[in-house]
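I hope you will forgive my troubling you with a question about protein structure. I am sending you one protein, given as its amino acid sequence and as whole-number tokens for its backbone shapes. Thank you for your consideration; the sequence and its tokens are set out here:
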Amino acid sequence: MPAPSPRSWFVLALLVVLHVLPSRALAQTFPALPFDAWVSADDLTVVPTREKLWPGLGILRYGDRVRVVGCVPDCAAPDAWADLEPFGAIRLSALRPAPRPAAAAAVGPDATFRYARVVGRGVVGRVEPNDTAAIVQRFDTGDEIVLAPDQSGVVEGFVQRPDGSYLRASDVRVFTPSEFSGWVDPPARFVFAHKPTTLTLADGTTRPVAMYERFAYLGQGRGVIQVEGGTLRYQDVRTGRTRRRPPRVPAAARWVHVDLAQQVLTAYQGDQLVFATLISAGKHQGTTQTGHFRVVRKLVHTTMKASASPDDSYFVEGVGNVQYFHGGVAFHMAYWHDRFGTPMSHGCVNLSPSDSRWLFAWSPGAVPDGWRGINPIAARMDSLYVRIERAPR
């Protein structure tokens, strides 16, 4: 066997030095407690303490912000745990001192996006706005993606993503999300037009009624709904009313009722109706299950994807104001359609951007500032009660 070369001896010695060098010499240096930090890893679960790793209290993803209020055993230890505000712990090694770099800040939970659908074939994201730059991501036709909100400085013919990569502008179609918003403090019985229609007045004349126009319900006749000033065709409207609080919902709790037949959601504080709106639930009967549920996880925004079959596959980025209440079924914002009042989803309950923000902020279990998500029941917080049924029309 030949003798090791001088270069081999040098590499071996370097490896030995790196192996025995104290880990804390290579660790991040953090400021004095308390301090702000950003998350440099993805899909981290916030646990109760380093001794109790279950149940998961919340979700942190790359770029999220946290405030560290303690370190165990100390902030210089290689295996330290970081105690977070307002609760929970994660490994300190997953954090970096604030401020975050621009690329991390762009994908944080406080981000705003533009939204688009991939319409080209073989679409790729590149590090520079030209067709010869290195490829960083590939997309399929039909993928729904997010774009950086500010496109003012982008080279003509390209669009920029929040991570700084570029796509050909001709390969995407930018969405204009719905501006529909529901009814705060609605009457006990109400009507929404879910398509453009006409109001027939008492004298037999008509006037146009815009999609999403709302009215107080006064009664109904043969094929028509009576509202102030006239009648609307029953087939053009969705109706709703105050629902009785289910026995399992505490007297002062916040809860929602979803009527799948009418595609209407109503929200309550105890027995008081406070909000009503149109939703879009599952396109196929049974995909949005009926029953009693609780919101178990809230995410500021996330990516949803599935590939169960060629006819039922999707990839959707930037889905905002997500509240899971039954397995993978959630209330969430839908930026890709403007047909609320009509079943449109794979099983989730779609809300307009405005309505999803309202419901997310109103429902119990506030997401801590800078975090991506919270598991309210695991964190021993109040949680939204959910009742879903298909009432006879």
